[in-house]
TrEMBL record:
Database matches in PANTHER family: OXIDOREDUCTASE, SHORT-CHAIN DEHYDROGENASE/REDUCTASE FAMILY (AFU_ORTHOLOGUE AFUA_5G02870), SHORT-CHAIN DEHYDROGENASE_REDUCTASE FAMILY PROTEIN
Entry keyword tRNA processing: no
Transmembrane domains' residue ranges: none
Classification of source organism: Bacteria, Pseudomonadati, Pseudomonadota, Gammaproteobacteria, Lysobacterales
InterPro entries xrefs: NAD(P)-bd_dom_sf, SDR_fam
Protein name (Swiss-Prot/TrEMBL): SDR family oxidoreductase
Protein's UniProt keywords contain Oxidoreductase: yes
Annotated family: Belongs to the short-chain dehydrogenases/reductases (SDR) family.
UniProt superkingdom: Bacteria
Length: 255
């Protein structure tokens, strides 16, 4: 983080499913910088190891585990190991994506299994631990792609819309257990090795076209999404549940 965090997450246990790169990595580091214990999972071991080391540099407990979030058995094992290592779970963040954008069977299956069903399965596995926490909240990473028809990414947009709807239904269902549920809908976020970083080099015309539709005149950063996550997980958002917060520099306003 480039600024000192105004939030205090000491004694919080944060679990991030999909936390080794991009937005997930920035979230992990933001919570660690605010004093939280953090667990992350991902499939790629090298990025997982690097991010875990960066979390440890903040002097907080860290747990990492390689996990295929398309595998229900692996999900259950990860959540139980994370909860045992951290001593419980206060905040669960479902951030993984299958990055399926086309109308192919493979892309539909990828985003359904990772963006949607992983969030359902991870939430289900974590709920017994969250229910025991006085700070319990769940945060999903949706997208502004869920808000409008998108002919070039039908699978991604539709599944993110389903995830946003699940957020509101889950929030209503878990309110009696005092578990808050919200989602962040990022706009176009640029980071090294990410989708828009690759697009800048491989398809500069498309990169410029998307940039021209962002009122703030630049792409967003993962840190800016992480800042929103800090707020939604904090006591300052104790009366906020069932909400989808756009973090997009006004991008979805300028269609």
């Amino acid at each position: 983080m480039t600024t000192t965090s105004p939030f205090n997450f000491h004694n919080y246990r944060i679990v991030i499913a999909g936390g080794s790169k991009g937005i997930g990595r920035s979230m992990a580091l933001a919570f660690a910088a605010s004093g939280a214990s953090v667990s992350i999972c991902a499939r790629g071991q090298s990025a997982l190891d690097e991010t875990a080391a960066a979390i440890s540099a903040h002097g907080v407990p860290v747990h990492k585990q390689s996990c295929d979030l398309g595998d229900p058995v692996a999900i259950s094992a990860y959540i139980e190991d994370a909860a045992q290592t951290l001593g419980g779970i206060d905040v669960l963040i479902n951030n993984a994506s299958g990055y399926g954008f086309s109308d192919s069977e493979e892309d539909w299956a990828a985003v359904f299994n990772i963006d949607m069903m992983a969030a359902v399965r991870v939430s289900r596995a974590a709920l017994p631990h969250l229910s025991a926490s006085p700070h319990a909240s769940i945060l999903h990473t949706s997208s502004i792609a869920a808000l409008h028809p998108r002919p070039h990414m039908p699978s991604y947009g539709a599944i993110k819309a389903a995830l946003s709807h699940y957020t509101t239904s889950q929030a209503l269902a878990l309110a009696p257990q005092r578990v808050r549920v919200n989602a962040i809908a990022p706009g176009s976020i640029e980071f090294e090795g990410g989708l828009w970083d690759r697009c800048k080099h491989e398809d500069p015309t498309r990169y410029a076209a998307v940039l021209s539709k962002i009122p703030f005149g630049r792409y967003g950063t993962p840190e800016e999404v992480a800042h929103a996550a800090l707020f939604l997980a904090s006591p300052w958002a104790a009366w906020v549940t069932g909400q989808i917060l756009c973090v997009d520099g006004g991008q979805q306003l300028s269609r």
